Amino acid sequence: MPATKTLPQCAEDAIQTAIDDAADEDPVILWWDDGGYLRDIVKHASTKLRCEFRAAEQTPLELRADAPRDRTVWYVPQSSSDDVDWFKDVEHTGEVVEQHIGKLAARCFENDRLQAATIRTAYEDAENREKVAQTLYEELNGEGGLPSLQGLQTKIVLDGQDDPVQFVLEHGTRNLPDGDELLKIRDLLVDNGVTAAEGQSDARTIVDRTRRWAVAEWLVDEGLDKSRLPNEYQPEPNTGFGISRPELRSVLSKTAQKRELADVYLDPNRRFWHDVLRTYDEPWKLVDCPVDAALEHRLWDEWTQSFNSGEYEECVTNARQRHDRLESTYGTVPWTNVWEQAIDVATLADELATWDERGDTSDVVDLYGDIDGGTWQIDNAVFNLIVSGEPETGLPEEHPATATLDDLRSSLTESRYLEYLTDLGDLVVDQIDAGSPFVGENHAHQFFAEEQEHLQSGQSVALFIIDALRFDLAHELADSIRRELPRLEVDESTWVGTLPSDTEFGKAALTPGSKFSFNIELQDGELVPERNDRKITTHRRQTLLENDGWSYIMQDAGDEVGWSNTRVAYYWNDIDETGEKELTNFEEVFSDRIESISRIICEKLDKGEWDRAYILSDHGFVSLPTHVDIDDLYPPDNAEQVTRRWVAGADLDDDGPGVILDEDTHLGYLDDHARVRVLADPIQRFRNQGLPDARFYHGGVLPQEFVLNFVTITQE
Q1: For tag attachment on the chain, is the N or C end more exposed, with fewer CB atoms within 10 Å?
Q2: CA angle 352, 354, 357 (to 5 degrees)
Q3: Whole-angstrom Cα distance, residue 406 to residue 393?
Q4: Residue 187 to residue 522: CA distance in whole angstroms
């Protein structure tokens, strides 16, 4: 039953009636307000009826100080005084109104005075009258329409909340009253369709049944046949107009405590409908219902079975749908994180399965370095999977992912990934032995010559030369810049780095000069990079760039003056240094580095109006699985320079491990005296004093080390 009047209208009616009933033509109306919450309303009504308004600030006797001459409303913010002699004349010539906010609110429901009396008693019996008064004032002040009696009663009982079902679903037993007030809430729940709560008097039971009813409502909304549920839990069909949605969905869309409610509605100890869901034939039809651990566990078990059956694409689709539903409902919580990693697990498994089935292996550079479909994506998937850690450790122990996810992840990132690296290494060896596998490719030592048109055009150009920026990390960096600065055009292209893929040769290759002037030769037993027959050291590299008009800036140098030049070469060395120090969890460190590099590049590109920028790298790297045994190899007796991944000499045997690079390989920069034996097998390395075993290394001929992703950034 809705209200028919507002508090201001009822106050005006009360004053007008008192004036009409008064013996005097200009009466004094005395208004006693037990609680004092009607002052503004009474004052406004008095003014509207052209009555002077006077209020007692401390004692009712203040009103006697000046005798009224015209119609006046005397307002006293307390209950009526027993000393009637104070206002005996008012009682004879004027009128007395004894109305606190509870009584006046009851008058707003003229069509149901009997039931409206509960509002008055609710105010009079309340321990905290201020809260009840505030609710009555907000609901009946005339702003926002008139409430129903039941809605107002609900708000009084629930301290301003207007939906008993949503209140219980969100807060549980917290803030629930006891005794008769609890029974009032129970009755309100039943009136709102929660039949399962009928007859219950225990707060915990009422909450549990209400939540179970709400979970059932959501399951039915997603397609569960409600006949599977007991009668008292079957949601009533919607008879109203418009779109209805489950009460629990509404709660979770508005609550500020999403994470806390994830613990409630995905708690393994509260499997609301386990008996129904454990035998349900098509649980994925209910995937968009993010409540009930029984469904969550069933979905994970089904997902694991599909994964073990090799249905990886379906696993990606299902995991993404579940992740997106949980994330939109709860935000980032352990359940969300586990499904996010499930996407990565299935993606990697699919990539590796595709690799196993691959038939065309004619060109290892294209095979690995194709921007859209290259196998560099396997490395990216492994990298992301390792960075995402062990999200199942945040779940309750009863969740089935705690027993399965680690094995799936380890199998992919260790044994299966190592098999892929070994196969890829064998393929490189075969193609190098077959002769000239890299002819026709873009080579890093040709960069300044190939890009001469842009580098010498007078445009402003920035080079970001990042040590050990592997293909997949360069792609992530490019994507990051696209998101941050969408006005720029960001292109990626595949280049072949210098072999062996060590920093010394890779950075030397990225120096100004003709592509024919770069050379690597054996001098006094040491492999040396040269430009125009001069050895390239760090100092020489800087000199070559500065003589060609470039500002040379090292990471953390703080050279703001250098950035004012129209051609800047900026060097970032963190990734290689991090890997060589053999830090634990270095994938996470690399991920942080990419974010840092992206911030710096975006800041520089955003501040300066660069016509063109390049992100270049000297080499990539191999990150081996966490648990792998390295085979130590003794370098051949006639080897001169020895590292972990390659040895150099003038006369190396042809039948040793790995593959020989020399002038016959037609790389374009090895002189006829240098023979370099490089390793392709990921678990082999030459013994070299002072260099420990590590998961991170480079220098060999795995594509992860020498197939590079150069990024070009221009103004659109």
Answers
A1: C
A2: 115
A3: 10
A4: 92
Say how far apart CA 580 and CA 691 lie, in whole Å.
9
What is the pLDDT at residue 238? 61
Domain boundary residue, one of 147, 181, 209: 147
- In eight-state DSSP terms, residue 327 is H
CA angle 348, 351, 354 (to 5 degrees): 150
406-424 confidence digits (pLDDT tens): 999 999 999 999 999 999 9
User: Is residue 226 one of the residues assigned to a domain?
Assistant: yes
Q: Is 440 left (phi over 0), alpha (psi -120 to 50) or beta?
A: left
Among candidate residues 521, 500, 514, 501, the one with its CA nearest the CA of residue 447: 514
- The structure tokens 């050895």 sit at 535
Q: In the structure encoding, which two tokens stand for residue 305, read together?
A: 């079975």
In degrees, rounded to 5, the angle at the alpha carbon of residue 641 between the alpha carbons of residues 636 and 645 is: 75
Q: How confident is the model at residue 546 (pLDDT cuts 50, 70, 90)?
A: very high
Regarding whether 615 and 557 lie in a shared domain, the answer is yes
pLDDT in tens, 623-664: 888 888 888 899 998 899 999 899 999 889 888 889 999 888
DSSP-assigned letter for residue 120: H
In the structure, what pLDDT confidence band is assigned to residue 521 with cuts at 50, 70 and 90?
very high
- Residue listed under structure tokens 């659109």: 716
Q: Tell me, yes or no, whether 234 and 370 share the same domain.
A: no
Contact of 478 with 616, CB cutoff 8 Å = no
Distances (CA, A) of 322 to 248, 287, 317, 393, 527: 18, 6, 9, 19, 55
- How much is the pLDDT for 240? 47
Residues facing residue 676 across a β-bridge: 648, 661
β-strand partners of 688:
none
Sequence letter at residue 16: Q
- What does the block give as tokens for 377? 């994506």
Q: Which domain holds residue 234?
A: 163-255
pLDDT at 67 over 90: no
Q: In angstroms, rounded to a whole number, what is the distance separating the alpha carbons of residues 293 and 270?
A: 7
Same structural domain, 454 and 602? yes
Could you please report the per-residue DSSP string of 122-143?
HHHH-S-HHHHHHHHHHHHSSS
Confidence of residue 239 (pLDDT cuts 50, 70, 90): very low
Q: How many domains does the chain have?
A: 4
Mean pLDDT of 122-145: 87
Distance CA 676, CA 640 (A): 10
Query: pLDDT higher for 116 or 277?
Result: 277
Q: What is the pLDDT of residue 402?
A: 97
Contact present, 5 and 16 (Cβ < 8 Å) = no
Using alpha carbons, list the distances in angstroms from residue 269 to 210, 398, 399, 422. 17, 9, 11, 46
Q: How many CB atoms lie within 10 A of CB 49?
A: 16
pLDDT of residue 557: 61
Structural contact between residues 198 and 190, judged by C-beta atoms closer than 8 angstroms: yes
Beta bridge partners of 73: 29, 53
Asked if 521 and 579 sit in the same domain, the reply is yes
Residue ending a domain, among 147, 181, 206, is 147
Cβ neighbours around 266 below 10 Å, total: 26
**Domain assignment of residue 694, yes or no:** no
Together in a domain, 426 and 313? yes
Q: Provide the angle, in degrees to the nearest 10, between the axes of the packed helices 149-157 and 179-191.
A: 140
Instruction: Please indicate, yes or no, whether residues 178 and 62 belong to a single structural domain of this protein.
Output: no
In a domain, 520, yes or no: yes
Alpha helix (H) residue ranges in 531-638:
538-547, 574-580, 586-607
pLDDT in tens, 322-351: 999 999 999 999 999 999 999 999 999 999
Kindly provide the b/e burial profile for residues 91-129, where b requires at least 16 CB atoms within 10 angstroms of the residue's own CB. Answer: eeebbbbebbbbbbbbbbbeeeeeebebbbebbeebeeb
